[in-house]
Amino acid sequence: MGRYVIRRLLQFIPTVLGTMFLLHYMTSLAIQFSGNPVRALFGDRTPSPALLAAVTERLGYADPCLDQKGNPCFGLFVDRVQNIFFHFDFGINMRQQEVTEMVADRLPFTLKLLVIAIIFEAVVGIAAGVWAGLRGGSFADNLVKISTVFVISVPIFVLGVLVREFVGVKFGNILRDQEWIPDVVASGFFSPGFKPDYPTASLLIPGMVLGAVALATTARLTRTSIMENIRADFVRTARAKGLANKRVIGVHTLRNSLIPVITYLGVDIGSAMAGAVVTETIFNVPGIGRMVTEAARTGEAAVVIGVVTMLVLVILIVNLLVDLLYAVLDPRIRYE
Amino acid sequence: MSDIVLEARDLVKHFPLTRGILFKRQIGAVRAVDGINLQLRRGETLGVVGESGCGKSTLARMLVGLETPTSGDLFVQGRNMAKVGGAERRRGRRNIQLVMQDPYTSLNPRMTVGDIVGEPFVVHPEVLPRPRRRARVQELLDLVGLNPDHINRYPHQFSGGQRQRIGIARALALNPEIILCDEPVSALDVSIQAQVINLLEKLQDELGLSYIFIAHDLSVVRHIADRVAVMYLGKIAEIGTEDQIYENPTHPYTQALLSAVPVPDPKLRGLRDQIVLAGDVPSPANPPSGCRFRTRCWKAQDICGQQEPTLDARPGSAHPSACHFAEVRDVVHARE
Amino acid sequence: MSDATSGGTAVGGTPVSGGGQAPGSKGGKERNASLWADARRQLVRDRVFMLALLYIFVVGSMAAFPKLWTSQDPRACTTDLSRVPPSWDHPFGFDRLGCDYYSHAIFGARPSMVIAIMATGAIVILGGLMGLLAGYYGGWVDALISRLMDIFFSLPFLLGAIVFLTVIKKQNEWTIAAVLFLLSWPTIARIIRGSVISSKDLDYVQAARAVGAGNGRLMFRHILPNAIAPMLVYATIVLGAFVAAEATLTFLGIGLQPPTQSWGIMISAHQNYFLEDPWLLLFPCGLLVGTVLSFILMGDALRDALDPKLR
Amino acid sequence: GGGSDDSDDAGGQSGGELRVYASEPAFLLPSNGNDEPSIYVIRQLYRGLVKYNAETGEAENDLAESITSDDKKLWTIKLKDGYTFDNGEPVDAESFIRSWNYAAYGPNAQNNGYFMKRIAGIKDVTAEDPDGDGPKTAPEPKAKTLSGLKKVDDLTFTVELSSPFTGFPTTIGYSGFFPMAQACVDDADTCNETPIGNGPYKIEGAWERGVQINLTRSDSWNGEPGKPDKINYRIFADVGSGYSAFQAGELDVMYTLPPERFKDAKASYGDRLFEQPGDSFNYVGMPLYNENFKDKRVRQAFSLAIDRQSIVDAVFDGRYSPATGFIAPTFQGAREGVCTYCKKDVEKAKALLAEAGGWKGGKLVLWANAGAGHDAWLQAVGDQIKAALGIDYELKVNLQFPEYLETADNRKFTGPFRLGWGPDYPFLETYLTPVYGTGSDSNNSTFSNPEFDSLMKQGDSAETIDEAITFYQKGEDILAEELPVIPMFWRKEAALYSENVDNFVWNQVSGADYGATSLK
Amino acid sequence: MSAMSTDVNVKLDALPGLDSDALPLEVKDLQVEFRTRNGIARAVNGVSFNLRAGETRAILGESGCGKSVTAQAIMGILDSPPGFVTGGEIRYRGVDLLKLPEAQRRRVRANRIAMIFQDALSALNPVFTVGFQLGELFRKHRGMSRSDSKARAVELLDLVKIPAAKQRVNEYPHQFSGGMRQRVMIAMALALDPEVLIADEPTTALDVTVQAQIMALLAELQRERNMGLLLITHDMGVVADVADQISVMYAGRVIEEAPVRDIYESPAHPYTKGLLESIPRLDLKGQELSAIKGLPPLLTDIPKGCAFNPRCRYAQDACRQDPVPPLYQVAPVRSAACHFWKEVKADV
Ligand SMILES: Nc1ncnc2c1ncn2[C@@H]1O[C@H](COP(=O)(O)OP(=O)(O)OP(=O)(O)O)[C@@H](O)[C@H]1O
Ligand SMILES: Nc1ncnc2c1ncn2[C@@H]1O[C@H](COP(=O)(O)OP(=O)(O)OP(=O)(O)O)[C@@H](O)[C@H]1O
Ligand SMILES: [Mg+2]
Ligand SMILES: [Mg+2]
Question: Are residues C210 and C131 in the same domain?
Fold first, then answer.
């Protein structure tokens, strides 16, 4: 097990460096072809070259390789890697904030959102999947299938805006007029977006919208998995042991069926992070997804690379944990 | 000795067990086949029996060239397969063909019978010019008792026994002298099994084939084989003619094996002197010292742990037997 | 599937198993042989599948021959007609710039479909090839391809798309398809790799090897055709996801550029009018959802049809 | 729902917490914050020499006792006594000089250094980069301070301009001219997070990035106190989500609106929707450096092809008003209908284009920066040109702002480009010289007209404001004929306030005035 | 053990019509069909037999003839859908199990009738320890505590001769060898001391040496407890070794039923005869084996009349027409479903 972990951790190195280099090269190319991102700071008012140069220097975009189209800027890359891994210095953004600080400010919101999303998709997705799986081909099965697939085929930004307007504003306003409904529910949970007064309650709906995206996959995966296992010999054995149906399903089928689902959920954290970009914008969650999207647009290389490096590390570690959890769930898998 | 078509000398196959994080180092080996000497004469059938995992299939795979031996030599019609190269080796290989155990999995479900049986000609185009292939395939189908008009059907349209015939036809395509049958009938029903065995015998008569016939059903081997080798943990425990092995087994393992075979005759119930072996076969990764059978042997003495018995004829036995105390023991047999 | 599909819009997810760990599973002793023929027969009988197919056929013909569906020019616009509601002559009304919305929707089918099909084709062919090579050869080839997959896989999808598309700066069908491909090929490569690993030791592959077949023949004639089913299922799902991803990219401002027509543009341009003029959102969303739904349902039906265990 | 039920403690004086919509500010340092969200916060934290009358927009002395000059070049400024920063430092002559020097000094890279450009000595505190964008970095500037700023006594200082400028007193109400404490300049980064202001409010806690900023009444302020006890700036990334929050009763004031929801807001909130003609100018610039746009008749023809009102109705729900001149209608000296070519007249457009020899540029490329919602109206412009003149167009709207600006700086536009311009100070000159003066920084169409330049000079050094205005208006006439840019719209200001708000105050120049807005 | 079984009987007394003198298992005219997409597969078409206490009845037949389905129907664990019992009776001590409500039927399982499956690896849940799976029976049926049930699990492993039971009880199925897994299955089946044990091909997946161990163990335990054993297999050797009574099935029907010796001596149905003849025999070495020609019928398309008629060398027109040949009484305790049983029996 220890060996397995070490080996996996060693495998992270090329992955993380590769991802960093890819981003580094892309952002460098962006600067080389689109020009100095610092220029945007001055908006309509053209700065004097001296001022521009001073700011560029200060923000770390002055490396001459950034003027040579196609130059992969290896020197800059090595500097960045050194700063990140040896000095824990992820650079600064255009407004001279430390990336580490920005991430520290914003990561909690995104994490909360993700946790809500994952719990939502896990609980609802698995429940729906089990329900559908036990009644393969029936009305319930089709209902779950169609409704979950419907959710994923509506683009998330449409879904998000609709939920915000109809649930948060329209329905929420009705509730807010009701005296007897506690504020946490009326103004917190049904707030049309993130609200600092109710930092958790107001994230529940955005989290669900984010989770809805992967809900369908979770449900479908569970369904298939349940349908497979329900015919397995060991389930038949459990029946033959005279166990109640609840136990046959809940203990002997579910745990085996959850193995692929758990794997998927682990992998999904990465995609949920991506989906968070849109959700955060629509529900005004001051999270990391929104921040990094903005950075990517304005060409803030340091932010993009810094944040994504952190994200990738998080994703990889989560995946490792999921793999280990996998071994706990399925004793047949033992990592030597 | 020109009538020896196949000879194995000290054939060894070890599967390495590795460990290591970056650089794998070998920490041991599964000694699947651990020094086997065999000779197969023209027109003869050599049966190989033994418990699951004793290395029968590995031996077979080495003989047909699917696996390279760790050490030892393999002579096909006097040619050392390891020494000759290129065309001659291909020709040598053409001479040994394989019939696999499971007729359901050994045929590509997406290929027609014609394609499957004709594949050897595509791989060895020199054997037969293209225009004549189809006719030859039909001939082969006819030979194994299938309707030649079924050349465009897919394997799933056939029953297990018929599929095994397709496998046999494929093996016959290149006009080999030797056919290796790795448990060709274990997956078949008793009633179908007899059909396939009859076919194999018929083909041997007509084409003068030599067979190596692997099986764990001792009565089938007895029926078809001229000589029988008994394997235990990667080694041959005893080898001799069918009569010698079945009537006068001298190795305790052979004796136990034979006594364990249930006899389809209720009258003999309780009359047989059954030896029920205790315990399981030891792991081939870590075989016992000296005689490999000693851990389950009722005759074992100190010498068995220290000195490995050679496969030789001993005073107590007229044929080669790898036991220090080889002697004939009376066993009540079926159908006497 | 942190993958393309995670485009925030749709997750075409697949069980991403770490590559063929399925101890104890008994392999396909079932007659997976009849798969295709049986599947076809079953699919023809499947009403949901046929409906979905019909829908895709309709949308496909819009994409291929828009003139068949409308004689209007979607680019003849007058702001005076801005957001005029549907009428008999203009069944979808006019958009906010006063262009005929129906012809916009018809002409908008092409980019959406072209992007989805090109990107899916690319991941199927190239991703499949990568997976095949990695799974078949193992060793360092596998290590190399797997690390490459990891790299693209760990990039959050939308973020990657933003980075790539802002660098490329040309947002047309080709570049968007290329970016979708780049960010999603690892999923399919993994699927193929897994199924290749589990099928390369199958008996019939060994049998072909014993006859003397070479690597190319083993890979393309024996392994690939039988590993292709899960990929095909995934491909239909991802096809739908890509249609939706195009819309999301447009919403983020990195998708297709007007005055081109596309459903994504229609949706993101009118997403704020859903209260006043809901039909502006309803029509393109309906078309999009229908397409995605159809593809996914087709994939589903295909999966069920191809799964011998569910038979 | 929420709201500030605890607000009626002090009668008309009111109190309570005013919850307002905000975007994430860039900086909270007066010398650095030049964007709308920043200024909305800075204006409550800091106060300057002059303030603008809420109704008329005229500059009135705030911290200044008097601002005088004989030659409009050397200005003497006297301060009122008794004002301090939150940390106790006095607001004296030194604090203004310090702030302006800090802003102007090149290596500090402060955004508002730009506004110090008229003060004598500006060249010496910013150094020219010897090789432009090249690898060599700029040398240290020659001087650390502006030679034009001189302290006379604790409460008096003089400002010498490089050239006379009548409008100077109106410009210094801009937040870039606010004073800064020594402690703030010493540690600008900290002061940016937790400002040390001199205004009626001070920050409570720290700036919670992306979430909110809380201001509370400052005890050190002894001018007219702010109305609410607290101001809560809720930060939104997207105006749409801010509007939702307003609808849900989470906000008291929104100083802006999503254009597409304008109609809806009007219908739902009626008289609580505050509307006012605005001063931000949207135009389509003409790349005069491109052969095809050199003939003014071509430019006139394009302008004549556009029906501005119909675009406004279609795309902006009426939240913009068509532009018929180059100076905001609210400004002193603005005239209605200066631009005779700004009305749709297809026949005339065709005739003019024919006169000019037709269009030879192939597909017209229309430029806008990405992600800011400009593509829709630009597309409408393209459609109208196409319909009127038969010139097909394509949009180039995928450049992010940095690259777009770089394209502008490098004169790489291949066709009409959209840009905007907002006033730096409430004086009509702000719309003219910086955008159309020969070689001006923001003259992206590369317009150059000696007559125009000289009119501007004359205006700058005119004796009185009224006299100056006549010169500027003559300049505007030239623009109306030459059309270096095609005026499109003026953004209408639109703000919403909730039922909790008693008296909503909108300042002509600086927008919503939260400190003056009282709650019920 | 005995104390325990009475304790259960108290609970099971609640079964309506329980008659402790009746046979432990009687199956009458059992019919099972599978409704699949490719049509209705009639897997069992009227199977009847009895099982006495202490008796071993073998059910013999080739693959797909409905042996396992019969066993599953008796246990009440058919996959349903697609499988449905469409007729017949299954009586446990006089109680028709098919008519019992599910809750009561569940209590019969494992308590009174237990089952061993063919493939022990897949029949044991891979994610729970052997101890958990054994202990579960005691916890759920006997309400024992976790630790008590664990202790009982260890006892059971001892009973089936698994060495070091105390340690191995905490291991997972995949850590056991094939033979040991099958012993665990046996332990599980015997845990609640049932009266009837159904063993569905318990040794088919095992080597002969291990098969001998398992069969010896089963025989010993059966003798000890006086259980009725229903042994499903297609191995004629094993049957000859342990069975008392034999039912031979073909295409979902019992086509011959007899005491074990009679069948081997003089089969009365051509199928049974063919089966016995196709076993390789020493005296026929070098000759062709006598194989049954043709293929087993598809269950979706069973031939008219006697299902075996297309493969039968005795077949005449009567065999090719409905009705299906009834079970003729061949001797006092044996019967065969062949119109020409006399000829068959006489033909040696
Ligand atoms: N590729 C391999 N890598 C490692 N070990 C292997 C490999 N192939 C076979 N072995 C091991 O070698 C031993 C012999 O296997 P082999 O398949 O030859 O047995 P067998 O006698 O054919 O058994 P069976 O009767 O079950 O087919 C087994 O212990 C097996 O686990
Ligand atoms: N779940 C199922 N769905 C559809 N058909 C089934 C199902 N289970 C069994 N059958 C069919 O019922 C018939 C009888 O199967 P059964 O398992 O009883 O055979 P068997 O006699 O036990 O054979 P074997 O010796 O191979 O175990 C087979 O034709 C099989 O296809
Ligand atoms: Mg084998
Ligand atoms: Mg069975």
Answer: yes
Say yes or no: B180 and B327 in one domain.
no
What the block records as the tokens of D282 is 């949207």
CA distance E117 to chain A (A): 8
Ligand 3 centre to CA of B38 (Å) is: 18
Residues in chain E closer than 8 A to C42 (CB atoms): 37
- Cα–Cα–Cα angle for E195, E138, E129, rounded to 5 degrees: 110
Q: Is D75 helix (H, G, I), strand (E, B) or coil?
A: strand
Window 115-134 of E, Cβ < 8 Å to B:
none
In a domain, C27, yes or no: no
Q: How many Cβ pairs within 8 Å bridge chains B and E?
A: 122
Scanning every residue of chain C, which has its alpha carbon at the shortest distance from the alpha carbon of E120?
C24
A10 within 8 A of A48, measured Cβ to Cβ: no
**Token reading at A136:** 């393969």
- For residues A198 and A279, membership in a common domain is answered with yes
Q: How many CB atoms lie within 10 A of CB E267?
A: 25
Mark whether C118 and C217 lie in a shared domain. yes
Which residue of C79, C251, C273 to mutate against D (max D Cβ within 10 Å)?
Answer: C79
Q: Which residue of A has its CA nearest to E198?
A: A240
Domain residues for the domain of C80 are 70-106
pTM, entire model: 0.81
| Dihedral sign, Cα of residue A191, residue A193, residue A195, residue A198 | positive
> How far is the centre of ligand 1, averaged over its atoms, from the C-alpha of D449 (Å)?
93
Let me know whether B82 and B40 are in one domain.
Answer: yes
Cα angle E278, E282, E285 (rounded to 5 degrees) comes to 80
Identify the residue whose C-alpha is closest to ligand 2 atom 5.
E34
Q: How far apart are CA A33 and CA A29, in angstroms?
A: 6
Taking residue A287's Cβ as centre, other Cβ atoms within 10 Å add up to 30
Chain B to chain C Cβ contacts (< 8 Å): 77
Q: Both tokens of residue D216? A: 């509370």
- Rounded to a whole number of angstroms, the distance from the CA of C311 to the nearest CA of chain E is 7
Q: Are residues C115 and C98 in the same domain?
A: no
Q: What is the number of the ligand 1 atom nearest to the C-alpha of B216? A: 25
> Is B237 a member of any domain?
no
Give the integer Cα–Cα distance in Å for E319 and A263. 58
- Spatial distance between the Cα atoms of D43 and D213, rounded to a whole number of angstroms: 14
What is the rounded distance in angstroms from the CA atom of residue E253 to the CA atom of residue E308? 11
Q: Which domain holds residue B262?
A: 249-336
Least distant ligand from the CA of B286: 1
Specify whether B277 is located in the same domain as B326: yes
Taking only the tens of pLDDT, chain D with its 520 residues reads 333 344 344 444 567 899 999 988 888 999 988 888 899 999 999 999 999 988 888 889 999 999 999 888 999 999 999 899 999 999 999 999 999 999 998 888 788 888 888 899 888 887 665 544 444 455 678 888 999 999 999 999 999 999 888 889 988 998 899 999 999 999 988 898 889 999 999 999 888 888 899 999 998 888 888 889 999 999 998 888 899 999 999 999 999 888 778 888 888 888 899 988 888 899 999 999 999 999 999 999 999 999 999 998 888 888 888 999 999 988 888 998 899 999 999 999 999 999 998 898 889 999 998 777 788 899 899 999 999 999 999 888 878 777 788 888 888 899 999 988 888 788 888 899 989 999 887 888 999 999 999 999 999 888 888 899 999 999 999 999 999 999 999 988 889 999 989 889 988 888 888 988 888 8
Is residue A3, in this structure, part of any structural domain at all? no
- Indicate the pairing of strand E334-336 with strand E253-259: antiparallel
Cβ-contact B320, B311 below 8 angstroms = yes
Q: Are strands B178-182 and B210-214 parallel, antiparallel or unpaired?
A: parallel
Contact C128, C192 (CB under 8 A): yes
Ligand 4 centroid from CA E101, angstroms: 27
Whether the CB of E54 sits within 6 Å of ligand 2 = no
Domain interval for residue A253: 101-329
